[in-house]
Every structure is written in C-alpha cells, then in structure tokens.
C-alpha cells in the first residue's frame, strides 16, 4: 500500500501553504498536516490495518505493550488540560488518536524541515521579524489553531469531537517537543518544557 494523500486546493493556501512563504512556514503548516495524516497509520486505529488496508493485527505483543504505555502518557497528559471557559477537563481518551497524530506530525514535519535546511542551507531571516526560522516553523503551527468559540459550542465539542480544542492542540505537542523548547529557549521544568514529555513516535 502506498501513502497517497489528497489535499484539496482549499488547504493549499495561507496559513498552511504559499509559494511565497519561506520553507519554515510551509513545513510548519502543510508539512505538519501531512505528517499528522501519515501518523494516523500508526495510531490507536490505524495500527489495526495491514499494508493492504485489511483489518489485521500485525504488531507483536511487545510493540503493542510499548504503544499502549506511550499512548497512556498522551491520554493522561491531555486529560489534565482544563478549559477554564467551561470549567471542564479535556478527555484525553476520546482524543488520543488525533493527539498522537498531532505530536507525530509536528515531529516529522520539523525533521523534514531540518533535512531541507541541511540540503539547501538556512533561509534569510524575514525583515522586521526578530524570529529564527525554527521559531517561525512552530509559530505557524500554533497560529493555525487560533480561534474562538462560544461556551455552548466548546462544551459540545469537548463531549463529541475526536479533536482536542485549538489551544490544547498547540500546548500538547509543543510542550512535548524538545525542538520547540530549544528554538524558544524554554527553561527545563517550565510549562512548555516539562521534564516529563510524552511521545509515541
């Protein structure tokens, strides 16, 4: 089976992608989306299908055990995020597949970006913006999830959606990222650079 994602034209525009953006922004946008979708092939649901798309257990017991332990770390982490607007905690269990994909997607996209830099060299800094391209990569990822919701909509989404709310989709993966912490010089033990980080892939 070949990974053949389809990206409608609607997503191939800012903030996700622009031919005029520096690579850091594109990798932090559409690159993360691609990495996210690829990671779904190895999350709590995708791992149950073989290379031909058939429902089949193809992981050995040791791999399954390791996956479940790592996934539990993600579940526990995301279940501790409180949404003050509605005074409720996020449900890390129902959102685990998307949370795993968000974490894996950002990690793989950043690796791909750094690989591009290794081959092509660092891009020129953007005039008037005092940020490195590594910082811009993570900034673009974060700004994709900016938005607002009425409390009623927030409550419903928290009950039924397999996706975490936007702010949690930023806080979770970035606080698990050593690369983010390094780019922004986050002190070890701070909210965005905790000593204990969760990862599956």
UniProtKB/TrEMBL annotation:
Annotated GO MF terms: metalloendopeptidase activity
GO process terms (BP): protein processing
A single Gene Ontology CC term: plasma membrane
Entry-linked PROSITE patterns: NEPRILYSIN
UniProt-listed InterPro entries: MetalloPept_cat_dom_sf, Peptidase_M13, Peptidase_M13_C
Ranges where the Peptidase M13 C-terminal domain occurs: 6-199
Top-level taxon in the UniProt lineage: Eukaryota
Protein name, as recorded: Peptidase M13 C-terminal domain-containing protein
Organism phylogeny: Eukaryota, Metazoa, Ecdysozoa, Arthropoda, Crustacea
